UniProtKB/TrEMBL annotation:
Lineage: Bacteria, Bacillati, Actinomycetota, Actinomycetes, Micrococcales
UniProt source species: Arthrobacter wenxiniae
Family statement: Belongs to the cytochrome P450 family.
Superkingdom, natural source: Bacteria
GO annotation (BP), single: cholesterol catabolic process
Membrane-spanning parts: none
The name this protein goes by in its record: Cytochrome P450
Length: 378
């Protein structure tokens, strides 16, 4: 598949704003065509992803967005902060115990545990066993945003089918409740629409946030290891980048909330876990003086190649823009900042250990798969 890549922040915002010319109809379609055997596996469980939220437009999209947004209001996100800190401290106690015996993978010990529990509490839905949830999430990301060959597709499709059956059972159990699935059912969504929304909301609500935490932890430790203390400018103050983050911060300094927040925002601007997203041209149109034919596949760069002077504009694009801006943006940033802050406070002597990690590299998702660290002197 050939994409027209749009990287300039102004143009990215324009594409997302011009919903009459560019639609998210391809946002959730597989990057590579699914083989007939793969489709048969999915069809056996009546797997269907009708457009509801991320891939939908129009009045229906606005209605569903309003319903879902009520579960992630600024007040509800702020209220969950103490719980995030509590969960982080619980997991960091486990990590600290492990560090007494050698290096610990923070991705496994800390980052993967917190977002699923937070999402469950906000939406009113239990999550499956963590290992199962992570397998389903990662397999689905690879199936739809990776480049699996036909044999690999079948393995991933079996996993996606299991996930879909679980979602359908949860949607049935939720009818008449105040949980997210129950409210969506009461709003008139049919079972396939509830499952379609849940399929990617469950993944986005925890897997991509865990990925963002991985990257923020890794870059916090990597920057401190590589650069040491930040250099000062002529006034004696540490040099900062366009996002207010020192160019190189000692790891322990990230225990301060404002420094952790600036660090996370820089990560969002430079290598967010969701670094690209797709759009399709609905008709022949123009963008920045160039013509785009109807049906053109467009890849929007949400982070990674924006000029430093873009500052907050580049950061904000990590969560999209306009009618399709991520409803969980505030929550994802909050969780990541608090986990980084609590980790630096609890384990100020951390440093990276072993070889550089392998990274997840999919069309729209990226993150280090491990963040292996050891405890040195603060």
């Amino acid at each position: 598949m050939t994409f027209t890549v749009i990287g300039d922040p102004v143009q990215v915002r324009e594409v997302m704003r011009r919903t009459e010319d560019f639609a998210p109809t391809n946002a959730l379609t597989s990057v590579v065509p699914l083989a007939p055997a793969t489709l048969r596996i999915l069809s056996r469980v009546r797997f269907a992803l009708p457009p509801v939220l991320a891939s939908a437009t129009g009045e229906r999209h606005r209605t569903v967005r309003t319903v879902v947004g009520r579960f992630f209001t600024p007040a509800k996100v702020a209220a969950i902060a103490p719980r995030v800190r509590e969960l982080a401290r619980q997991r960091l106690a486990v990590a600290a115990a492990g560090l007494l015996h050698g290096p610990v993978d923070l991705a496994d010990a800390v980052a993967r545990h917190i977002p699923p529990l937070v999402m469950a509490e906000l939406t009113g839905h239990p999550t499956p066993e963590l290992g199962l949830l992570k397998r389903w999430s990662r397999d689905s990301l690879e199936l739809f945003w990776g480049w699996p060959d036909p044999d690999r597709q079948q393995v991933l499709a079996h996993s996606a089918a299991e996930f879909y059956v679980w979602l359908r059972e949860e949607a049935a159990r939720a009818r008449g409740t105040a949980s997210l699935f129950g409210v969506l059912d009461a709003a008139g969504l049919d079972a396939a629409e509830v499952c379609s929304l849940g399929y990617f909301l469950v993944i986005a609500g925890q897997e991509t946030t865990s990925q963002l935490i991985n990257t923020a932890l890794y870059r916090g430790l990597d920057s401190a290891d590589a650069a040491g203390a930040p250099e000062a400018d002529a006034s004696g103050a540490p040099e900062v980048d366009a996002f207010g983050a020192p160019a190189a911060v000692p790891w322990a300094a990230l225990a301060a909330h404002e420094k952790a927040q600036a660090h996370v925002r820089r990560v969002l601007a430079t290598e967010s876990s969701v670094h690209t997203w797709r759009r399709a041209a609905l008709r022949d149109t123009m963008l920045a003086g160039a013509s785009l034919p109807a049906g053109a596949e467009i890849l929007l760069e949400l982070s990674g190649r924006h000029p430093a002077e873009a500052g907050p504009t580049a950061y904000s694009l990590a969560f999209g823009h306009g009618l399709h801006r991520c409803l969980g943006a505030r929550l994802a940033e909050l969780e990541t900042v608090l986990v980084v802050q609590e980790t630096a406070a609890a384990l100020p002597g951390l440093r990276l250990a072993g070889q550089p990690p392998q990274w997840l590299r999919l069309l729209s998702f990226q993150a280090p798969l491990t963040v292996t660290a050891t405890q040195g002197k603060p």
